[in-house]
Amino acid sequence: MKERLKNKLMGIVQAVDRYPLSMLFLVAIATINAVSIQKEAEHDSKYLFTFIVGAMLSVVSQQVYERFCTKASQRFMLMGGSLLLAAGYYLAIRSAPVFNIEISTKTAVAMFALLMAFIWVPSIKSKVTFNESFMSAFKAFFITALFSAVLAGGISSIIFAIDQLLFSITYKAHSHAMNIIFSLFSPIFFLSFTPRYPGKKDADQSTEALEKVEKAVSVPKMLEILISYVIIPLTAVYTIILLVYVLLNFRGDFWANNLLEPMLVSYTIIVILVYILASSLDNQFAALFRKIFPKILIPIVLFQTIASILKISEAGVTHGRYYVIMFGIFALMAGILFSFFPVKKNGWIAAVLIIFSAISIIPPIDAFTVSRVNQVNLLVETLSENNMFEDGKIVPNSAISAEDKKTITRTVSYLDSMNYLEKIDWLPNKIFYDDHFKNTFGFDEVYDETGRDNEAQYAHLDWEQSPVVNIEQYDRMIHLTVYNEEEEDSGKEIPIEINNTNYILTKQLEEEYFNLHLVDEQDEELIRVNSKEVFDEILGDEETYGGEGKTLSVKKATVTRENNKVRMDFLITSVNHYDDQYFADMFVFLKIK
């Protein structure tokens, strides 16, 4: 046991020495997190992700050096290249006002490509196959996750015990400890499991080095049992269910079914991952899986890709649809490769993944440029067909078909959610604020009816555009939150004193929705308001489903209820509606007449 611990500690020390530039980036990541924790302020995500990308680039460059190079000067050149690429990444994102969905997605895709390169490079023209390298990384990940979780739990318990039993510890101590574990320990521990694979300068590796490689790529008996007798049979059952579903529902509306696409994509990912893991196994179950399932994968992927392409004709290209179709093409190639080539050629799919990832993030054919151009063209085409676009300006027209209204609403909503409106001169930036949409196009937003009952509705007050609320005419202001599922909140009383008279405002759950009751000192009810009616008035005619929801001015966000005794104005700062449940935050302005 002592010897194993010593060897593991030596492995961690060797990992630090083996990946020096990566260690510097990891220290930078931990430092920027520590500063953020200490100052209780958000860190600059652009610096953080630059350091993460830099760490991954330097790890891949070290793998390239070990596999193909022999001179120290080549190593320094690769390190320099990693630094330049990391700097280029920072220059590419620093002009963005926020770390938006485009930058986030491109960064995630780039990191995924680097991860694939990290696994693939040691297997290029090597005795070690991609399947073995993948198995090594797979084991290292789960062992690291287990050790990190145990370490995090243990340190958290120690900090808590000291704070409760001995002396007070700053609440920041826990965050600092987690930062060290997950920013430094976890990646270094993971890299310590990566053996030095055979390279150009390692033609005559020592027996000890070869044994380390063999141990790293070997499949533990328990993992072999798990893959062969649990994961593969479960995948087979999932396949049968999927095929039965396809056969029973194969008709016209089948291709437009929103359930189909994510179901087929998830199945494809599962089969590819299980196939790669099973490629390192030598038993009947694994061999049968490798022989049959890739051939089933091909028609399944064709279904998924056709369904995705059909959706383009309806809604145009979005960045999500772009990636789904590109994944479909990749999966089709993977199915063909798995079906007709030996398992030692599996590394080709890593090369294809890296190429596809690069295509999807490099303009002008990247996912976001293609989707933006397509959505703008679809919008212009729809407007032009209805004589609503002349000399670069929009002409309002309410007398167009419902389908065209939906297309216009959908495309404008997508462009707005991606912050592309700033690049389109003939569209106002705050298109969904107040009545801008109606004033621009001549009609209110129109959304698809399909599945509407189960989709989320959301509206919120735009405080930036409406920072001031006039309250001089009211006697009191009350802040309330309403959530239908919080039954224990029913009957809660809020005492209010106005001109030496006491009143009580009560939230009462009645028939699944809260009613608000205001009574005086004699327990006489002055007014009763149904919260559902208030929220429906906000969401009613101009409701938005999904995305960022509808942005409201103070006027649009205010609902009034009054009688000859009381006036109550409800200023809804935010309201969510899903599956007959409402969650709202609001201010109630009260005036006793």
Outline:
Helix content is 57%, strand content 13%. It has 593 residues and is α+β, with helices and mostly antiparallel strands.
Structure overview:
- With 593 residues, the chain is an alpha+beta fold.
- The chain folds into four domains: 2-217, no CATH class; 221-362, no CATH class; 369-450, no CATH class; 459-592, no CATH class.
- Helix content is 57%, strand content 13%.
- The chain contains 17 helices and twelve strands.
- The strands form three sheets. Strands 3, 4, 9, 10, 11 and 12 form a six-stranded mixed β-sheet that branches.
- A hairpin with a 2-residue loop joins strand 5 (492-498) and strand 6.
- The protein is globular.
- Residues 450-454 and 541-548 have low confidence and may be disordered.
Label this structure with key terms.
alpha+beta, 4-stranded antiparallel sheet, 6-stranded mixed sheet, 17 helices, single chain
